[in-house]
Amino acid sequence: MARFTPHTDDDIREMLEAVGVEALDDLFDDVAPKFEGSLDLPPVSSEYEALKDVAELAGRNVTGLPIFLGAGAYDRITPSAVSSITSRGEFLTSYTPYQPEISQGHLQAIFEFQSVISELTGLEVSNASVYDGSNAVAESALMTARLTKRDPKVAVSAGLNARYREVIETYGVEVVELPFDGTTDYSGVPDDVSGVFVQSPNYFGAVEDVGAASEAAHAVGALAVAVCDPIALAVLEAPGKLGADIAVGETQPLGMPLVFGGPYAGYMATHQKNVRQLPGRIAGETVDQDGRLAYVLTLRAREQDIRRARANSNICTNQALTALAATVYAALLGPEGLREVAGLSVSKAHYLAEKLGEAGFALRYPDAPFLWEFAVELPDAKKANEALLEAGIVGGLDLGDGAMLVAVTEKRTREELDAFVEVVADAV
Amino acid sequence: MPFNLIRDKGREGRRGYTLPKPDVETRKLEDVLPEKARRQEKLRLAEVDEPTVIRHYTNLSRQNWGIDTNFYPLGSCTMKHNPRANEAAAAVPGFAGLHPLQPEAQAQGALQVMHELQGFLSEISGFPAVSLQPMAGAQGELTSILMVKKYFEDAGDEGRTTVIVPETAHGTNPATATMADFKSVEVGLDEHGCVAVEELRDMVDETTAALMITNPNTLGVYERNIAEIAEVLHEVGAFLYMDGANMNANLGRMRPADAGADIMHYNLHKTFSTPHGGGGPGSGAIACSEALAPFRPDPVVETSEEGYTLVRPEKSIGRVSTFHGNFGVLLKAWNYIKMHGPELRDVADMAVLNANYVRARLRGTYRIPYDELCKHEVVVQPPEGKKALDIAKGLIDHGYHPPTVYFPLVVKEAMLVEPTESESKETLDDFIGAMLELAETSPEELEEAPTHAPTRRLDEARAARKLKARW
Fold first, then answer.
1. B19 burial class (0-12, 13-18, 19+ CB within 10 angstroms)?
2. Domain ranges of chain B
């Protein structure tokens, strides 16, 4: 019998009798066409054997080395307390909190997540999260069209992560490109767009002028969408204070391991007046029959299971467990801890940039202010990365045009930074 | 009891985590950033120590029921046991520490997992091609319908404007059609609760892009005419999409491709138990025919002389996730399938046995609108004069998570019960006992339930009227 089923032969016999059929096959009498064969899958593994295979395959990945890759996912410290909470069965094995009387744990955690996001973005309402950063971006593009009652068409620059842009396009939104030279030129935004995107720090690590982007959007009757790394928001002015109408981004830096790209969670926040066009779950405060404070999923009339074809998105679930990880991380670090994570990363990244400069490698955009990620001119980035790997370092992202995108987190040590410069200088 | 927010438990200056000391010169933000770019006000976040964080969230978890704590027969959601080996697999540092942009040569283990999982899902569905990119069932639906759309665009067939959904469809189906810029129209049901084939035949024409069918459907009934339905669609050049939310009933018993479907999505968090996590992360991997394969999202994993590589399908709809979908979820599904192999069929058998047992034992007290063989779940209605909501809340006081209520919409006072295969006969007998007892309980008493839960019934209208969604 199957691995995680409790049925004995006697159970099966008694239950079939109660149902009024003779054999298990009879339960599938209505199925046509039947699959009569045996599935061509590998033979059953015991838990021990399956995990042995996992360990063996894990060994074929290169991990455990210092990583200088970023570009949307960051090798940050994940406190032990985070996974200790997210692995609790009550959180791990529950479903969407449709029955609030027995789901207050997740509901309050979502409320706290929304609070953290609202605080970071300076916007009044946040949803309970969406699948990832790219989906937050794409959903926000669609949201600008609904709010402005224009066709979905948005202005972006090369400063927006190209992968985010691709998901926008997959979702049927037209994209127009703004000029970019380290930062984006917002002087020529077309007047028929529904939204204007500003990623800050942008894909190349530079801090953009969110205020200028917002003004340019509003001047043509469009909405401004800021795309921000949540750790950066510990030190950068909140986009809501700079005029952004919507803020979205990737919460992976808040305590989530890299796991080859997911699961992470995207966040979305906006002004309260736009809340009916915000997709996804929202937890709100209320009281129970006895007047006790409690939380519940609210404004449900926006959603697919109520409104069906007229819903504002087809999104059903959020990323509750990874959003919980972000919430616990934010609680552990607090306002000063988040600033410290940002500050350490800034100090180390600027140290590395200077050392690279001394070794003769120029920044691609020397005038653009940056935090912890930058593009450095490196004619043969591929060769540099090969030499780095040889020396036990995972290098930055080869941009393919004579530059490398380098990210430095609080995890990197001075020794690792010095070794990076030394190896690159020797290699090219 | 309820429940101060984490922010209420702190004091200015407390810290819950210590970072490494700086080992390079500290840069002042003033020297790095222009003033108007710098945050001016302190973040109003919790300032708490680690013991307080752990106690706060541990106590919150205790206000939450999961499969680990209670029987959870939530119809349509497949709340089966979540094997802990899945969690162990995803926590292995050789996967957890892998950056998504590391070159393929540095990620061969991860790519092999994805390639093998593509193969497993191909075999289980009968389809030749798979994409692991969608990160939830709803996104698998959208991905599939966007692929159908792109297929017609590519073929120069411009008049395909309509997607048909049955009255019993999940809300995500019509919402997906809208999001992909199709008009969705409903087809009715026959006396078995299945798609009315003759009505469908009259509806389809050269404007039809696809029918989105769930099989078994949301009444728990097998769509016995699925092969004929596929023919009806194919005759007008349209596609049959199968919502795989209920694949748990089909494992090793029925393959959607054999039945004539063209494309489907899986819910790896349901069928392969990865788990649900309170509403995500999940995975909505899709499987499809050769005709639709070139339109799959970017990337898929293929093999070459250099090993496993990430490839953009020729006519791809583009990306639907930033990197490679929810890889950690994929790894768990791969592990679950490895631990079952061809014995996956036993999963379907026991899931269907459990549901039919519940149906047989509730008959006579609860009304069963479609009282014939069901698959992995069954719809029942409370006795006359009783409300599904009240029975649901009463179940909480008996220690059971309620079934899905008021869905599917076509059945009044619907209670959709999905026991899953991982529950024993004793658990089902106890649950049935509670259901029978609640059928006899007075409506006045039921309206008071729950009285033993962390909270009593909530004022949901107030939450919407006076929206407070943050501290």
1. middle
2. 65-82+347-471, 86-338
Is residue A357 domain-resident?
yes
Among the three residues A297, A327, A357, which one is the final residue of a domain in this structure? A327
- The single residue listed with the structure tokens 């409790």 is A6
Neighboring chain A residues of B422 at a CB cutoff of 8 Å? 4-6
Residues of A (187-206) whose Cβ lies below 8 Å from B: none
Residues 6+ apart with CB under 8 A from B453: A101, A102, B396, B397
A27 in B contact zone (CB under 8 Å): yes
A340 shares its domain with A250: no
Domain identity same for A90 and A114: yes
Contact state of B322 with A72 under an 8 Å Cβ cutoff: yes
Give the confidence band of B418 by pLDDT, cuts at 50, 70, 90: very high
Tally of domains in chain A: 2
Mutation target vs B (from A125, A268, A317, A356; most B CBs, 10 A cutoff): A317
Helices B172-179 and B137-154 cross at an angle (nearest 10°) of 40
**Residues A373 and A244 occupy one common structural domain:** no
Are both A211 and A352 inside the same structural domain? no
Does residue A94 come out as left (phi exceeding 0), alpha (psi in the -120 to 50 range) or beta?
Answer: beta
Taking the Cβ of residue B320 and every Cβ of chain A, the question of whether any pair is shorter than 8 Å is answered with yes
Contacts B67 to A, Cβ<8 Å: 89, 93-94
Q: Do A99 and B343 touch (CB under 8 A)?
A: no
Beta carbons of B318 and A167 less than 8 Å apart? yes
Structural domain range at position A308: 81-327
Residue A405 with chain B: CB contacts under 8 Å: none
Q: Which amino acid is at A340?
A: E
Inspect the interface and report whether the beta carbons of A234 and B39 lie closer than 8 Å.
yes
Q: pLDDT tens, A295-306?
A: 999 998 888 888
> Nearest Cα to B144, choosing from B248, B246, B322, B287?
B287
Does the beta carbon of B160 lie under 8 angstroms from any beta carbon of chain A? Answer: no
Q: Which CATH superfamily is domain B65-82+347-471 in?
A: Aspartate Aminotransferase, domain 1 (3.90.1150.10)
> Measured between beta carbons, which residues in chain B are less than 8 angstroms from residue A311?
171, 175, 178
CA-CA distance, A283 to B5, in Å (whole number)? 14
CB < 8 Å from A in window 326-385 of B: 326-329, 331, 335, 337-347, 349-350, 352-354, 356-357, 359-361, 372-373
Instruction: Give per-residue pLDDT as tens, A260-285.
Output: 999 999 999 999 999 999 999 999 99
Looking at the domain assignment, is residue A40 inside a domain? Answer: no
CATH number of the domain to which A207 belongs:
3.40.640.10
- 């023919």: which residue's tokens? B231
Q: Which of residues 423-442 of B touch A (CB under 8 A)?
A: 423-425
Our CA-based measurement puts residue A222 at a distance from the nearest CA of chain B, in whole angstroms, of: 21
Per-residue pLDDT for B3 more than 80? no
- Judging contacts by C-beta atoms under 8 Å, the chain A residues touching residue B452 are none
User: Do A376 and A243 have their domain in common?
Assistant: no
CATH number listed for the domain at residues B86-338: 3.40.640.10
Last residue of a domain, one of A327, A361, A391: A327
**Angle B50-61/A320-358 helices, nearest 10 degrees?**
150
HSE at residue B126, side-chain half, CA atoms within 13 A, is: 22
Residue A271 in domain: yes
Q: Which amino acid is at B58?
A: T
If you count residue pairs, one on A and one on B, with CB atoms under 8 Å apart, how many are there? 680
Q: Do A169 and A233 reside in the same domain of the chain?
A: yes
Q: ipTM for the complex?
A: 0.97
B220-275 tens-digit pLDDT: 999 999 999 999 999 999 999 999 999 999 999 999 999 999 999 999 999 999 99
Residues A104 and A129 in one domain: yes
pLDDT per residue as tens digits for the range B283-327:
999 999 999 999 999 999 999 999 999 999 999 999 999 999 999
Rounded Cα distance, B45 and A12, in Å: 55
Chain-chain contact of A11 with B425 (C-beta, under 8 angstroms): yes
Tell me whether residue A66 is in a domain.
no
